[in-house]
Specification:
eight-stranded parallel beta barrel, alpha/beta, about 600 residues, six-stranded antiparallel barrel
Length: about 600
């Protein structure tokens, strides 16, 4: 309870009432400018279970047309009252699409000086990918309806890394720094790191003359200097194959590009016939060690452009009408490693790097330096900082230190940062509900722990009124309460009902980002799994009109059917309400019920 005395007019009474109501509803007030108030303002008191929880769609489908068409998602899911809006990733190389130059410019959202390389300037383009308002626009179609969180990504996991600008790992760029080095890690050049996702792309030997191997690989290459991940002449690649003579030396081999589907390189062996398969990956397609100067300096410039672009004048033009959407921007997350996270990959290999030898304190110092830089730019919106532990067994000193830094930062209006983990799964429920993981203040906890130590960290910070965000580590597997189908980034997260509510909600979670496919499973009556118009006799099946395409974690139409018939929208009027289900739908609406329970005041 506090008292602020100032002279105000009668019109300010409604403002005071609005602020007080907002405080009681959401637990947070963001104010810019000057507010004069007489009397007492009753602010909410936070305890471990009192907060307002928002549900956000993580990385919604853009569409329209083709697999994972967003039309049904927009019509049948996004408008649900339980969904606050969308969390939309933006990719670095979709905005920085040209090489830095020495041409000076005034700092803005389209040009930024490189903070570590005086005399070099970066240029950025927003209209092509993120500011257009046509069909499938990645931001406009969502922000025009509800609020949006912006997730600023610098690297991405997968067989290859498709979103770091090509130049960042090129000798042209890193040779301008001291030391002249930008290391990369992948599953071929660091075989001791067995769990790395950057495993490369397949190709077939076209010809083999001496040590020169010519490779055919569909859409592998570019003959122009783009900032995409395609191979360009001069790129260093690493190759592995069943025939070791095809492999590259340990330091990799530079390539020469012939055309969009062919390149050649120097192998470590000779004398084998053609028409053999191989696997390759380039430096630009790998994980770039992010705390090294060439990467870090370029990333800082990109972050400055992001802050400049999404400022108070952020507007989008549809047809001839221009609308300011700044008030529809909710929170931002900035990633210093993969996605919007800060996980240090393969620390055993990083430790041996010349010039950039790794240490835990060096990594957390990188986290602190980047956070300090971001906040020196005066961001005008709420920021949530991801925290990550490292290696196996997990070392929680990373996450604990990062969380301490995060809650010490604030935006230009003094609003304190929040913290988040993108590793939620049934494994956390097992560790922290069925067992005790409350001793997470230590660096290691043995067999039972929560991802990135979020559970005890939330218990530490949920009385501070800061946002506490969670995202499942992968798509869910309904009714798997034991991680029988795996709980991890390349498998599943288990049963959403088990880890969502009340388990993680009760620890003060204010924001959930849930995969759009899981929200379709929760709310889509007709198209998550679309039966035939006139269903045949059982057994039913999901036909080609279903919203969810196969591939990745969803591997078969029978899996779609099993999920839908277990927890999707069925014909139980008590659980499912007054919807009109498909004939033959038998789901118990379990996912929708739990998402509805998690959303709102607690």
């Amino acid at each position: 309870m506090g008292t602020l005395a100032m002279k105000i007019g009668i019109s300010a009474i409604s403002l005071l009432l609005a602020l007080t109501t907002a405080a009681q509803a959401t637990g947070q007030i963001n104010i810019s400018g000057q507010v004069n108030i007489i009397g007492q303002v009753s602010m909410p008191t936070f305890s471990g279970t009192q907060q307002y929880t928002n549900i956000w769609v993580f990385d919604p489908p853009n569409g329209p047309g083709g697999a994972n068409d967003n039309v049904n998602f927009m019509n049948d899911v996004f408008g649900n009252n339980a969904i606050a809006g969308a969390s939309v990733p933006i990719a670095w190389n979709s905005i920085e699409m040209s090489l830095p130059t020495s041409t000076p410019c005034a700092p803005s959202d389209t040009c930024q000086p490189d903070p570590g390389l005086p005399g070099m300037y970066h240029t950025y383009t927003w209209t092509t990918t993120y500011d257009y308002t046509g069909p499938g626009s990645p931001i406009y179609q969502w922000i025009n309806l509800k609020k949006v969180n912006i997730l600023v990504n610098a690297q991405q996991s997968g067989a290859t890394n498709p979103i770091t600008p090509h130049y960042v790992t090129s000798s042209w760029w890193y040779n301008q720094f001291s030391p002249q080095q930008q290391d990369v890690i992948n599953g071929i050049n660091t075989p001791s790191c067995t769990s790395l996702p950057w495993t490369g792309t397949g190709g077939t030997v076209a010809t083999w003359s001496g040590t020169t191997v010519t490779v055919n690989s569909t859409s592998c290459c570019s003959t122009m200097a783009t900032q995409g991940p395609s191979l360009q002449t001069g790129d260093v690649i690493w190759v592995t194959s069943p025939t070791t003579n095809l492999d590259t030396p340990s330091g990799g081999s530079p390539v020469t590009v012939n055309n969009s589907g062919q390149f050649y390189y120097t192998a470590s062996g000779t004398g084998m016939p053609a028409a053999q398969s191989l696997n390759y990956i380039s430096a630009a397609q790998s994980w770039a060690v992010p705390y090294e100067y060439p990467f870090m300096s370029a990333l800082k410039a990109f972050w400055a452009a992001v802050v400049a672009h999404y400022g108070p004048n952020y507007s989008l033009t549809y047809m001839t009408s221009t609308t300011n959407y700044f008030s529809k921007l909710n929170y931002f997350r900035f990633g210093g490693s993969v996605g919007t996270e800060w996980y240090p990959y393969c620390t055993s290999v990083l430790t041996s790097l010349p010039n950039y030898g790794y240490s835990m304190s060096g990594w957390t110092n990188y986290y602190q330096q980047m956070g300090n830089y971001l906040h020196s730019l005066g961001p005008p919106w709420q920021i949530i900082d991801s925290v990550n532990s490292a290696e196996t067994p997990a070392n929680y000193c990373y996450a604990n230190t990062e969380a301490g830094y995060a809650v010490g930062w604030a935006n230009r209006f003094g609003v304190t940062d929040g913290i988040g983990s993108q590793g939620l799964s049934v494994a956390d429920y097992i560790a922290c509900h069925q067992h005790s993981c409350l001793n997470g203040s230590s660096c290691t906890m043995g067999s039972y722990y929560s991802a990135s130590n979020w559970y005890p960290l939330f218990q530490t910070y949920n009385t501070r009124g800061v946002p506490l965000q969670l995202q499942p580590i992968a798509l869910s597997w309904p009714n798997d309460t034991t991680c029988a189908n795996g709980c991890g980034p390349t498998t599943y997260s288990g049963d959403l009902q088990t880890f969502l509510y009340p388990f993680s909600t009760n620890e003060g979670t204010t924001d959930y980002e849930i995969y759009w496919r899981d929200l379709s499973l929760a709310y889509d009556v007709n198209y998550y799994c679309h039966f035939n118009t006139i269903p045949p006799p059982p057994p039913y099946s999901c036909n080609s009109s279903s919203s969810i395409s196969l591939g990745g974690e969803i591997t078969s139409s029978s899996q779609l059917l099993t999920f839908f018939q277990a927890v999707g929208q069925g014909n139980d009027p008590t659980a499912c309400g007054s919807n009109t289900p498909q004939t033959g739908s038998m789901g118990d609406c379990g996912y929708a019920i739990k998402v509805n329970d998690a959303q709102g005041p607690h």
